[in-house]
Amino acid sequence: MSKNITILGSTGSIGRQSLEVIAACGMEAVALTANSNVALLEEQARRFRPRLAVLADERAAADLRVRLADTGVRVLGGMDGLLEAAALPAADTVIASMVGMVGLRPTLAAIREGKRIALANKETLVCAGTLVLEEARDYGAQILPVDSEHSALFQCLEGNRDRGEVKRLILTCSGGPFYGKGREELRQVTREDALRHPNWSMGAKITVDSATLMNKGLEVIEAMHLYQMPVEKISVVIHRESIIHSLVEYCDNAVLAQLGAPDMRLPIQYALTWPRRVPGGPARELDLWHCGPLTFGTPDLDTFRCLALALEAARTGGTAGAVLNGANEAAVERFLRGEIGFLDIPEQVARAMDRVKAVQDPTLQDVLEADRAARACVRSAP
Length: 382
Ligand code: MG
Description:
By secondary structure, the protein is of the alpha/beta class. The protein folds into three domains: about 5-145, Rossmann fold; about 150-310, no CATH class; about 315-380, Rna Polymerase Sigma Factor, Chain: A. Helices cover about 45% and strands about 15% of the residues. It is built from 16 helices and eleven strands. It has helices at about 15-25, 40-50, 60-65, 80-85, 105-110, 120-140, 150-155, 185, 190-195, 205-210, 215-225, 265-275, 305-315, 320-335, 345-355, 365-380; strands at about 5-10, 30-35, 50-55, 75, 95, 115-120, 145, 165-175, 235-240, 245-250, 255-260. The strands form two sheets. It has a seven-stranded parallel beta sheet, with helices on both faces. It is globular and about 55 Å long. Bound molecules: magnesium ion. Magnesium ion binds near residues 149 and 219. The site of magnesium ion has 4 residues, from α7.
């Protein structure tokens, strides 16, 4: 069970909910990091009194240093600060909840110190899953999933003694805000439409990914790496209610599912308290008697092309995941800035996947280069 925790990305949605869990479960936050949100990091630092507070943005860090001068909290800035927070000797656990590929280096730094990693940064595994898991094995770092689907799979796989008995992993997918719509309707979708998710409250990037179904595609690749399963043994089922968080089908056709209210604080807490469960956490109770019927359907891969592209990248392997992810991050940024339409996101990802060839058995350098080339390809697209 975790006691002393570093949060990489404490001002984001997962970071804020992690602090609620830490407070409720009597754990300690020893380091907090964020990108540039000075006001919120100051508030968190005053309440949780970590030893170290870091802002990636150097100018914001200088501002924070002045604001926290009376507290004794050490303040650092930039990538060096993030790496120091990730490797802080006082922490036994690092919650990796930065958004995007920028989380890769700090996560690797924490792994090399043998920390328990509560992993919420799916991009890290999508881009460099093989490398990250190899390092985790070499340094004896446990990786526990925070993503609700992967936490569900993890729970359904506990007690499984032989991976050969697993027939397939089934990831549930809410379908996002545009479920049931066709391509014509999606052409007109605005930034505001895409940012309205029916079940989960999350940051902007992941909410857009949930609307395109890229999020589910990234999660398939994440599951491949975490559970060492080929993509052919991973399926996606539409489940609008987000009550079942994922399922494991075994070779005798038994299917195990994990259910709960759609509340990220539950998988966060389990990643921190594993292998125990503790009462008194902040997650909501599931009221089965009033949650209504649970429904299941097939994802529409023609309309939501991002999911099909992710499955293609999963089959290709090597740096294909890094190309997919880098292109998607850049395309979502362009969509959020109003430069491209909703249906241009899969177009631009597909274009990058065509142009940037995948390298097999990549080094970290190959992964970073694939990411860079994919982003450049999207930024130079019309
Ligand atoms: Mg998820």
